[in-house]
From TrEMBL:
Keyword Metal-binding on entry: yes
A Pfam entry, by short name: 2OG-FeII_Oxy_3
Region feature Disordered, mapped onto this chain: 430-457
Ranges annotated as biased composition (Acidic residues): 431-440
Stored Gene3D superfamilies: q2cbj1_9rhob like domain
Protein family per UniProt: Belongs to the iron/ascorbate-dependent oxidoreductase family.
Record domain Fe2OG dioxygenase: where: 149-245
Transmembrane region(s): none
Keywords tagged on the record: Iron, Metal-binding, Oxidoreductase
Iron among keywords: yes
Protein name (database record): 2og-fe oxygenase family protein
InterPro entries for the chain: Oxoglu/Fe-dep_dioxygenase_dom, Pro_4_hyd_alph_FE2OG_OXY
Organism for this UniProt entry: Rhypophila decipiens
Signal peptide stretch: none
């Protein structure tokens, strides 16, 4: 039986590691930016890499009789030269409930799809993708990197004095998409700042205040809230790219063990007084993922080593624990408010799902709490039995399962989940779980006995 002093020492280690996690999470960047000078004057290029060739846009005219020679523009550009391009653009919509919606009170902008225009601008040759790969796609050494693909998505123009796009979060086009890149071409305008927010931090990219012509850009994670402030005058011209993580190395590199986070995690997990009977450390993912989609699960299984496409602190924690020799799992966590049969007061049904992929509860569901416990939740582990390293953000939700509810009439209802990383700690004398390469489907061999920590906050 552990003594009070042993309990105090492991609690202190755990609290120290929670503090390290909190500090590390604040230090991780959710966006990066830069500029490329369009001025040949060497003095103007001291603080920005120069653009080697003028940026050119060519587009398909809406009137077939318009000569192709009139459908080309080179930047820097003024309002008069932009008029022909603007005349051939369409009003921009936005996604809502799986549909494209046109509402100028929410978004007022013009757009061209990639099928209607081309450009000579390349974010790779401009050096942008090198910066994005270093900052937004974590790596622990030169041998442990993720290949990033930038796919041109749209050409947009926000015109003064009313162009804008209210705060929103992008919808990923696939499970491998992790972010967006916005490139602002040199055209005079004021206002129209790109405001990006995540976890209480906000950055405003005020490209309209540039004093000399430059290609300016910003990249950020897909789950970051962002908006385009009102353009007061001129035209704000941007190219938007979707960013995809294409491949990650199969094996964690031991260089990750040199970080402070790794040293504190190793000190905690190597303490034989910590979780002597085995158990799990839990971390609610700091970023949003389409974790309940089968494509996300398939993308993870097909990646070398089954490493999931995680971002920021999520990626680093996974790689650190794996490099230390501990098994990691991705699991959905639910906290559902349910009413028991015949009861007026609700109760919170908490649990960890058996698998990430979207599921359906079959048949008539008379009591959701019972159906969840019987058919969806893990029988071996409960959120209250996990030492959670952070609190649940309550925002990064995905649909976990659907069921048919019966009242006056049948209706389809949904339960939502949060993505969590579970780090398995083997008890003294226990055998290592070798049932899965991915940690996506495996159930723990036996119920862990762990001191509890709060689910949310």
């Amino acid at each position: 039986m552990a003594s009070d002093s042993d309990h105090d020492s492991t609690t202190e280690l755990l609290d120290e590691f929670r503090a390290i996690i909190a500090r590390s999470q604040k230090d991780f960047l959710f966006t990066c930016s830069g500029s490329l000078s369009c001025d040949n004057d060497p003095k103007a290029s001291e603080d920005a890499n120069p653009v080697k060739d003028p940026v050119t846009i060519r587009w398909d005219p809406s009137d077939a009789s318009t000569p192709a020679s009139q459908c080309k523009i080179t930047f820097p550009a003024d309002s008069e030269s932009l008029s022909a391009l603007i005349g051939d653009m369409q009003q921009a919509t936005f996604g809502l409930g799986g549909k494209d919606v046109l509402d100028e009170s929410y978004r007022k902008a013009l757009k061209l799809d990639t099928t209607a225009f081309s450009t000579n601008f390349c974010p790779y040759t401009a050096g942008i993708m090198d910066t994005v790969s270093r900052i937004l796609v974590p790596s622990v050494s030169e041998n442990q990197t993720c290949i990033v693909r930038a796919e041109l998505y749209k050409l947009n123009i926000y015109e003064g004095p009313s162009g804008h796009f209210r705060s929103h979060v992008d919808t990923p086009r696939s499970s491998s998409q992790f972010g967006s890149l916005v490139v602002c071409l040199p055209a005079a305008h004021s206002g129209g700042g790109l405001v990006v927010s995540h976890k209480g931090k906000t950055i405003n990219f005020d490209w309209g205040s540039a004093t000399s012509p430059a290609v300016q850009w910003a990249a950020f994670y897909s789950d970051c809230e962002h908006e385009v402030l009102q353009v007061l005058s001129g035209q704000r011209v941007t190219l938007t790219y979707n960013l995809y993580a294409c491949k990650t190395s199969p094996e964690p590199d031991k260089a990750v063990l040199n970080t402070p986070l790794a040293k504190h995690l190793e000190a905690l997990l190597s303490n034989d007084k910590f979780m002597p009977e085995g158990g799990f450390l839990g971390f609610h993912a700091a970023h949003a993922y389409p974790h309940s989609s089968r494509s996300f699960q398939a993308n993870t299984k097909s990646a070398p080593g089954g490493v999931p496409p995680l971002k920021g602190i999520d990626h680093v924690l996974w790689q650190t624990a794996t490099a230390l020799g501990f098994k990691c799992f991705l699991r959905p966590v639910i906290g559902y408010e349910a009413y028991e049969d015949g009861e007026d007061e609700s109760s919170i049904v908490q649990g960890i799902g058996q698998r990430l992929a979207f599921d359906t509860l079959g048949g008539e569901v008379e009591c959701l709490a019972d159906a969840l416990r019987d058919d969806y939740l893990s029988k071996s582990i409960h959120p209250e039995d996990v030492e959670w390293l952070n609190h649940c953000g309550r925002k990064n939700q995905e649909v976990a399962l659907a069921y048919t509810a019966y009242g006056n009439q049948a209706s389809t209802e949904y339960v939502y989940s949060y993505c969590a990383i579970l780090i398995q700690v083997q008890g003294q004398g226990s055998e290592t779980d070798e049932d899965s390469d991915t940690g996506m489907e495996v159930e723990p061999a036996s119920p862990p006995v762990i001191s509890s920590a709060p689910f949310g906050g």
